[in-house]
Amino acid sequence: MVLAILVAFLGSVLLVHGFFTDIWVFQFCLVIASCQYSLLKSVQPDSSSPRHGHNRIIAYSRPVYFCLCCGLIWLLHYGSLRISSSRFTLYGVALTSSLLLASARDLVIVFTLCFPIVFFVGLLPQVNTFVMYLFEQLDIHVFGGNACTSLLSALYSVLRSIVTVSLLYGFCYGALKETWEPHHIPVLFSVFCGLLVAVSYHLSRQSSDPSVLISLIQSKILPNLKEKNPEDPLSEVQDPLPDKLRASVNERLQSDLIVCVVIAVLYFAIHVSTVFIALQPFLSYVLYALLGTVGLLTHYLLPQVRKQLPWYCFSHPLLKTKEYYQFEVRDAAHVMWFEKLHVWLLFVEKNVLYPLVILNELSRSARELASPKKLDTEVGALMITIAGLKMLRSCYSSPTYQYATILFTVLFFTFDYRHLSETLLLDLFIMSIVFSKLWELFYKLHFVYTYIAPWQITWGSAFHAFAQPFAVPHSAMLFVQAAVSAVFSTPLNPFLGSAIFITSYVRPVKFWERDYNTKRVDHSNTRLASQLDRNPGSDDNNLNSIFYEHLTRSLQHSLCGDLLLGRWGNFSTGDCFILASDYLNALVHLIEIGNGLVTFQLRGLEFRGTYCQQREVEAITEGVEEDEGCCCCEPGHLPHILSFNAAFGQHWLAWEVLVTKYVLEGYSITDNSAASMLQVFDLRRILTTYYVKGIIYYVISSPKLEEWLANETMKEGLRGCGERNYVDLDPTFNPNIDEDYDHRLAGISRDSFCGIYLGWIQYCNSQRAKPLNSDKDSPLVMLCFGLCVLGRRALGTAAHHMSSNLESFLYGLHALFKGDFRISSVRDEWIFADMELLRKVVVPGIRMSLKLHQDHFTSPDEYDEPAILYEAISSHQQNLVIAHEGDPGWRSAVLSNAPSLLALRHVLDEGTNEYKIIMLSRRYLSFRVIKVNKECVRGLWAGQQQELVFLRNRNPERGSIQNAKQALRNMINSSCDQPIGYPIYVSPLTTSYCNTHPQLGHILGGPISIANIRNIVVSTWHRLRKGCGAGCNSGGNIEDSDAGGLSCGSGNGTGGDSHQSSSSHGGTTGPAPPHSYQPHSLGTSQSTQSVQSSLVRQSPARASMASQSSSYRYSSSRHSSLRTSTTGLEPCRRSSTSQLSLRTLPTSLQLRLGSTSDPAGPSSSLSSHSIPPCKRHTLVGLLGNDGVCSTVTDPHSQLHNHHHHPQQHNPTISTVRRDDISYRVQLVDVTQVLENINLPKRKELLWPDETMRLRAGRTCWRDWSPVEGMEGHVIHRWVPCSRDPASRSHINKTILLVQVEDKLVPIIDTGVIELGAEV
């Protein structure tokens, strides 16, 4: 109603005041009528509508545009009448002249009269798209912002920029009002410059989407706002991404709080020093030379020599990564020296060179811009603030092409057209906008020329053959269209995929108006009835979409860091890349580029694409190195150089291969036909046997077993099974499938069942903490028998009692695998007493049997031993996720980076009906990275939308989606939003932050925060204390103290009561009786005990051998203060202030530390030696193995040190208790963590016990991961070449087992720093 009144009112006002005469009055009335009619009935189809059918926003588009144009006509007309003088000029053009405003008014009038044609062709988008585009362009080109992700984010970004300019304007205006002396800049202007750099840095690091920031604020203010519903089946399934994003934003805000203050103070100090005035003009020349050199090296030379085909001349990269020649990548990408160089050059360029250049131009141009000859103080202060903010934010966010813009501007306005310059600051501001449009024009022309080149045109239809010659005479018009579309950032799309190009309507960088993203079909969003009957979502595309979702999460973790490392070459806002591997082909669209953040969208294509898609995949994966052609002959080519034909062909492509071995974490997919694995009866019998054993394992290992055995309802239901001659004669049992089938009784009897499975029941029962009675007639055996009969009867029921038929058997197996149990027998109704038996026993049993059946093919007889089978099931339960792909837990496991997954897939797609066993293994995958011309992608997307929505071409074999290798037309068109394209997955807009990339953190250091600063200070303090201890002894150094791990003041008492080991030396005596460990008395030193138990956990028998071998090697390699001699190690120097006698140390260590010149009495000779207190911690490395022996030896040797006993140990004494261990370390390099070393198939290390092995690794940690700065206790150590197998490292490095909170972390010793011992 309001729009209708406005249209009528504004139209009548323009008509009354005589803006239109003659025939144009009729035309204007026609425009008014069309706007009024669109409010009554929206146009269908509309050329600018992004969707089929009714679009309510389109109904308001014409009236809104009409009102805007009429209002603009009035404003321009009013301005042309009121302005008489040209006050403001730019490059000789009077911006406020009445002639210019009148010309603009007439142009808008003509545009309004052309509304019918404009809306028919589709040159104006729907209103919300136009508003988002307008605000985004304003924020990018005026305020230096980034691309926007939604209309809300566009409004937020513009308001944020306006508020920032308003705050900075006051400082700039105040400074310009002061008196400027020739060789002095006002202090307030220096304050403005410091704040400008700091604020620009902060804004460049913030995303345009405020949703994560709002969510973070809500979580801090109202942490319990969302209450969980305990009855919700999805309450346990948590998506880790929102918490991860909030943590990243929180970390960046904390870092900015400190860094912005430092930046403001630093640049204020630089600017106030008048360096930008005193050193002119030499400073400007130096800065421009440095900027040109660093920019050329960082953004041109390094990316070119790292490309797959540098300069389209060489046949391989000139700088290769470590993974380039690897056939299969097994680890994360190795950081090369040139990647580190690229990061540091980029860091220096963004944070040093660009701010200095901008501040230099601010200092030189401020007075002139604010002078009455230019813009006056008020307008000059505004322009200085906007120009400085725009340039700094652009340089921080996207510095790729900034060096070229700055150098060209300086050269052009300094040497060529100096008289046109409006001060270099304003020149840079204008030229940055011009250059962005010129780059866009370049990409459009490159797309057009490569698409219509006659020697590689691919005609997809008869219309293409007609349009090709028809487009040749209109080349001039095509160039004009390209220029206009570049100015307004509109796509230039091929009409129906032909060689005729037309301009589409304006779009934001995000391109698509709809926030379309894939909703995976699973059991959480479908009806139960449909799950049981029709099995929705069973097509390959829906099931495979989870792999692209996981790929999106992997990119979220590492994409921003990889871009900064230069692994994707040069990048800018709106760039498009294709990731291609053996089966994954995804288009990655970079939308928002910030300082340390990237917002992207991933579009996954079908695994088994069409013929056209396969041809284009072959084009991007095939190599051109072997091409030897030159025109029509094949003379060959020089070594490492492309042939003439290959080089020429690469120049005429809208895409280029950047990297052939880009490493990213993902899942390798292995699918086997279930029909081939269960074809014969013997294989089905093996599966059924494992099914029964799985049920027995899960029921016995359940913590509710005793409750089930005591349940009266279950007892009553199983009473019949307890009869002596009981036999189940259900016809579903088959002698070909059931191993315990009794042929005499034609069924399954309790005797036949026990004859096969009683041994397995008893072994599983023996593994319980409190074993139960497992005799043949026990309730436990009866429960197992009842459950196993029920499980097999359910399998037969699901298979329609046709288990002998393979198809029916697979159908029943899949039904049970997804949890569809039909209890059809009255004898099985006792199971309803507790449905946990089905959920926690029978369902895991059928799923585990599938994995055990797979293992059977690799080692057929391995699982005949109960111990091996039990360990295998326990290991699979810990390390393997077995679930149906429709289960929400399957998606949660994949997104949580579960190491291995297994599922049984039933595929019903296009007439196929097959069952597959899907095995996923998390590993590092290798991708090819192909950069596609972004204007090619935008143009093809716009063409598809116009063809399918407006022209309604529903032909599945239309010419516009046929393969065109030079533009990858089919792959790009397939990636459009559905139903225009057919991607199997479209991700939501996802933001990747650089602080989640571990390798980048090792190069530049982690984020700066108060907590990290505190950790650094504490770590430095510990090292200073250790260094102090090393300095107290002659010849000591920090390396000595680092090896020890105790601080100078860690031992504060005498060590007379400490325990020592009785090493054999001298005479012999009888064995000493065992004694338990005694606590220390008050006032005595605990340092010896801490040392003795800090680094090793061993049995006493192993410790005696390790004390003579491993400890010596460890100490001799780490302790330079204890020099070796021909007789052993020299002791520390004597000190009158010592309180820790060597007599308190283990005897084996006393013999190595003391003088060996008196073999008759080593103890008496050693008792006179002592160690200074500040050096005691250096003994920790020497006591690594001896300390364990000392804690379990005969106490008589501790009370009578002057006697000599042979070293005797009681084998029944256990290893050192964890309570005795107080040696602490801090994790400093998480890349040294060995998270998969505990896998059962890896037998490199001998673990202290099996519980530790199961707890020490990714399989136990799940979502938890060790991070730098964590602290923990060392509870075990493996040393290279140790004689003791329990302490022997399988690699040439020492491995520590560190307890961090309740987790065990195996890590190489170079990845920790030693914090000392707590006493």
UniProtKB/TrEMBL annotation:
Residues 1057-1066, 1081-1127, 1134-1172 have a biased composition (Low complexity). It is a multi-pass membrane protein. The chain crosses the membrane at residues 57-76, 110-135, 147-171, 183-203, 257-279, 285-302, 400-417, 423-441, 479-506. Keywords: Membrane, Transmembrane, Transmembrane helix. It is found in: Membrane. Residues 774-999 form the Pecanex C-terminal domain. InterPro entries: Pecanex, Pecanex_C. Its main location: membrane. The keyword Transmembrane helix applies. Residues 1049-1172 are annotated as: Disordered. Belongs to the pecanex family. This is Pecanex-like protein. It comes from Characodon lateralis.
